[in-house]
Amino acid sequence: MKKWFVVLALLLGLALAAAPEKKNVTIAVGGKSLVVYLPLTVAEQLGYFADEGLNVKIEDFKGGSAALKALLGRSADLVVGYFDHIVRLQAQGRDLEGVVLMGKYPGLVLAVRSDLADKIKSVADLKGHIVGVTKPGSSTNYFVFYLLAKEGLKPTDVSIVGVGGGASTIAAVERKQVDAISHVEPVITTLEKRGKIKVLADTRNKAGAEAIFGGPYPAATLYTHRSFVEQNPETTQRLVNAIVRALQWMQGKSAEEVVAVMPKAYYQSDPELYTEIVRNSLGMFSENGLFPEQGPKTAYKVLSMFDEKLAAANVDLAKTYTNAFVERALSK
């Protein structure tokens, strides 16, 4: 019996000591400084990737669709973006899989310019107007299409233009280049504080998200090709370990404590405003990284509202995510 335990201990020790298949990893992200992706920066800044024996390079793009292109083109190993993309790409025959959930609420907001608020009082009133999104084909874009579909409108009933991330979006609103925007923090609160926008639809909290989507809606996700996961299970596990550790570190932390580990470039123009934005956003993040069972179903229902090809496709939602790596990370 003792001999058996010794052998088992040795095997466990070897498993725990397994080296990552790929130490140098590239992660693409569409707007790293956007608050919805904050756990990625926490993991990077606190050295959690390095603790896992990984050299992680984060490539920053202007929108989620551009980051996704890097993944599909194989210039990035994984991507941090919205769960939406996984569902849509599965329908197109691309086998992508989410391995850890960072955002349990999307944090997406649709807002109209304040000087047009008397004319555009609802989503239905957007017909014929210009709506700014991070980039066409991004989740900020899909949010607009979904809200239009709920009102019986088509995607072509508005003009969608890409306005990028932070400063460029603010400039587009202030210069009146767009009539409305679909975006996330820190852009929304910054424009609200300046009196430049009025919110029409808000998914920054549970009540708003579930009222709009009708259920839990998985948002910011670390995902990749299923083939990468299968070929690099130890590397994937270590990446998930780092993200789960970041999510757990964030639980119970004050906004000031979180801001203290952020790069100064994120908040140097207005530290107090950025701290307020983080404080209002902390509830968006997952406590543990697990995907809720109903989440993918909600995402598919929402996307099918405006995408006829997706609605007609036979998507195996069980293949869009796995909780296996997160469960192992939580059991450590």
Characteristic key phrases:
D-Maltodextrin-Binding Protein, domain 2, 5-stranded mixed β-sheet, 16% strand, single chain, disordered N terminus, 2 domains, 10 strands, alpha/beta, 16 helices, globular, 332 residues
Give a description of the structure.
By secondary structure, the chain is of the alpha/beta class. The protein folds into 2 domains: 2-105 and 217-330, Periplasmic binding protein-like II (D-Maltodextrin-Binding Protein, domain 2); 109-202, D-Maltodextrin-Binding Protein, domain 2 (3-Layer(aba) Sandwich), CATH 3.40.190. The protein has 16 helices and 10 strands. The strands form 2 sheets. It has a 5-stranded mixed sheet, sandwiched between helices. The chain has a 5-stranded mixed sheet with strand order 7-6-8-5-9. Strand 6 (130-133), helix 6 and strand 7 form a beta-alpha-beta unit. The longest helix has 18 residues, at 233-250. The chain is globular, with a radius of gyration of 20 Å. The model is unreliable at 1-15 (pLDDT under 50).
User: Strand-and-helix sequence, N→C?
Assistant: HEHHEHEHEEEHEHEHEHEHHHHHHH
Average pLDDT metric: 93
CATH-defined architecture of the largest domain:
3-Layer(aba) Sandwich
Count of discrete alpha- or pi-helical segments spanning 4 or more residues: 16
**Total strand segments:** 10
Distance between the termini: 26 Å
Unreliable sequence segments: 1-15
Major sheet: size, sense and barrel closure? 5 strands, mixed
Radius of gyration: 20 Å
- Kindly give the count of domains: 2
The CATH topology annotation of the largest domain reads as D-Maltodextrin-Binding Protein, domain 2
Strands ordered across the widest β-sheet: 2-1-3-10-4
Instruction: Assign the structural class, choosing from mainly alpha, mainly beta, alpha/beta, alpha+beta, or little secondary structure.
Output: alpha/beta
By CATH's scheme, which homologous superfamily of the largest domain applies? Periplasmic binding protein-like II
The percentage of residues in β strands lies in 15-25%
What is the global morphology?
globular
